[in-house]
Amino acid sequence: MIAFSNILGDVRRIFIKFALAVIMAVAASFLLAPYWQKSYAVIHTVLEISCIIISVSSFFVVWCVSEIRKTNLILGFGFLAVAIFDILHTFFWQGLGLFPGSYYDLSAKYWLAGRFAEALFLILSTTSIVKLSIHRWLGLALTIIASSTVAFDFYYTPGIFPVLITPEGVKPLKVAIEYIIISMFILFLFRVQKGHFHEDIITKEYLILATIITIPAELCFTIFTTITDFYNVLGHILKISYYFFFLKAVVAAFIIFPYKKLQISEDRFHKAFHMNPSMMMITTPDGKVVDVNECYAKLVGISRQEIIRQSFFEDNNEKVNWGIRQDSLVGEKLHNDILNCQTVSGESREIMVSTDTILIDNTQFVLVVATDITDKTRLEKEMARYDCLNVVGEIAAGIGHEVRNPMTTVRGYLQIFQRREQFYEYHEQINTMIEELDRANSIITEFLSLAKDKAVEMKRGNLMNVIRSLLPLLKADALRLGHEIYTDINYIPDTEFNENEIRQILLNLVRNAFEAMSESGEVMIHTSYSEGSILLSIRDNGSGIPPEVVRKLGTPFVTTKENGTGLGLPVCYRIAERHNAKIDLVTGPKGTTFKLIFYLA
């Protein structure tokens, strides 16, 4: 129903334009008729030259566009042939009398040849012949040769062709040929409506309108009796009208419609490129940046304008000169390669990169597509660490107490033996055994802290109070090790936490910071509140943590200390998990910062 209403609307619109064109042509003919009778030679020549200019313009539009893209040259060659025959028709027209060798109906023959060529080329444009790959210059030569051959035959062998018009009027044969031409135009209309003309709807509308106007125009030339007849004037005015609509159809088909398609295509590319959530960049093969989307510019930390036209490499050492440090992306195809890059702010990011060679206007470029997988990788590592902690926690919950009980028994007997005189000579060895048992017991205590289902009592309080209560102990440790500890305590709201566990995590992180620094180091404890979260950070000015160690941080039993157990940080991560908190790490040559972020419900 919707399709039918659309067709009905198209028909109504074409009919209204057709009616207006005919009415205007009739009105113009009435106004022009008195002047036509007095100066018909001049007016006829002006009207025909107008048609010739329109035909030649239509040809040149098609011809020029064909230099840029493959197009339907049949219509262009048809307009060229029509222009040639219209020139000859005007030159030999009996009312002009410029050529002494002309005879009365030669002009009529050229007229009919032009109309026939017009209808024929229109029909051919709806057939498969348009798909043939004919060189444009060959087609031009064939059109000129064919038109010239017909023109020479009409002029030099007049006896072969019957007379079409005499001073007394139009011959029946001319009328019959005009009706044949009209039927050809109707055939073209039928093929257009059946979808054999593969152009846009606007072009089809103009072609249909122009073709419909040709029918009354041709009819006028079947019924006029003299040169000064009103129908002769009306026919020429209608001829200009349909030539004009043919030109509009050509402009729409070969200029406006392709331009709109190009605009739509460019808009689609622009949106797909610049609004793409993945990072995209186009470079020349030698690494000069041609374009880059906002996502890439945002990652790098500088504007698109600063990136574009810069060299992708810096000093030919596989370094991007606008801040990213990564492997070469130009000269070889990459497919989902994982590369490390560094933004201008110094942040290290992990990206997955693919590259491919593309042709734009027959010029080779390199398309770079990258996805920032830093957060995804971090989450995967976090999940792997938590899985490991869960396994260790389950083991701790299952066997921790069972191991501690016999150890307590052994320690008790060793203390009894230590007091007896007969074991006095073994006093030092027994003391060492008790110390090792105590050390093993402390490890088991930390081990039990990894238990996921460990019951902890949460109380409402303020983390600032915990920091202040621990500060004397931490300052004593710092003084003993030759370090300084400072605080930057800003307001933070009360929250739910377990004081013993917060003390444990704070002690672990600060003591790790002390051990990471050489003599005369500085540790800063900082608190702040922002956007529904509390930040507790511990920063040292040590030499940073190596990347290979960072990847393993939080994994149980992984330690760089000579006497370390590798359970301190895993315990911190487990405590953070129980408090709905997250531990982030920022490390570099100038130090390391552990950030403990508590999310408020």
What are the main properties of this structure?
58% helix, Beta-Lactamase, 15 helices, disordered N terminus, 14 strands, 5-stranded mixed β-sheet, Rhopdopsin 7-helix transmembrane proteins, 5-stranded antiparallel β-sheet, alpha+beta, 601 residues
Q: Under CATH, the topology of the largest domain is which?
A: Rhopdopsin 7-helix transmembrane proteins
Strand tally: 14
The termini sit apart by 57 Å
Structural class: alpha+beta
The CATH class label of the largest domain is Mainly Alpha
- The number of helical segments is 15
Indicate the overall shape. rod-shaped
Total domain count: 4
Radius of gyration: 46 Å
Q: What is the string of helix and strand elements?
A: HHHHEEHHHEEHHEEEHHEHEEHEEHHEE
Helix content: 55-70%
Strand content: 5-15%
Main sheet makeup: 5 strands, antiparallel
CATH architecture of the largest domain: Up-down Bundle
In the sheet with the most strands, the strands line up as 4-3-7-6-5
Q: Low-confidence parts, pLDDT < 50 over ≥5 residues?
A: 1-7, 315-330
Average pLDDT for all residues: 79
Give a concise summary.
This protein is of the alpha+beta class and 601 residues long.
